[in-house]
Amino acid sequence: MKKVLISSVLAALVLTGCGATEEVAPAEAPKGMRDGAPVAVTLSAQDAAVYPKKTPLIERNWEGQPPVIPHDYKKSVNLKKNSCLMCHKPAKPGKKAKATPTHASHYDADGKLDNLFYNCHQCHVAVSDGPAAIGSNF
């Protein structure tokens, strides 16, 4: 009796799930940055950013903000090499650093760069004289 009852309840659930459902209209797709232009349309590129040769230190906007990069950084980080560390690694005792050294929080207990901080451009951005790509009210 118990097997028959369980089998009939399961069959009723399966048949209920297979019943006709009401069709739902698809939601409107988001417009994105192209502002409604179809993907096939090629939009003109903006002028390339101009990076100054040397800039003074730039004041930070909030406490804890990563410092901005005051120079061009093309081709500096890839999977095999982080060229930022050629100049920004901590100086050896008794020697002067080439540039502002990487903060101690970026290194693990063994003194090796923590992989979480390998991609410098994830937090640090370069200063540019180019136009803003996207408006901001920040």
TrEMBL record:
**InterPro entries from the xrefs?**
Multihaem_cyt_sf, NapB
Which residues are listed as membrane-spanning? Answer: none
A biological-process GO annotation: anaerobic respiration
* Signal peptide bounds: 1-20
Pfam families the UniProt entry points to:
NapB
Domain of life of the organism encoding this protein:
Bacteria
Protein keywords: Electron transport, Heme, Iron, Metal-binding, Periplasm, Signal, Transport
Q: Which GO terms describe its molecular function?
A: metal ion binding
PROSITE patterns assigned? PROKAR_LIPOPROTEIN
Q: What GO cellular-component annotations does this UniProt entry give?
A: periplasmic space
The protein's matches in PANTHER family, at most eight in alphabetical order, are given as: PERIPLASMIC NITRATE REDUCTASE, ELECTRON TRANSFER SUBUNIT (PTHR38604:SF1)
Instruction: Give the record's family classification.
Output: Belongs to the NapB family.
Q: Can you name this protein?
A: Periplasmic nitrate reductase, electron transfer subunit
Q: Which organism is it from?
A: Ferrimonas lipolytica
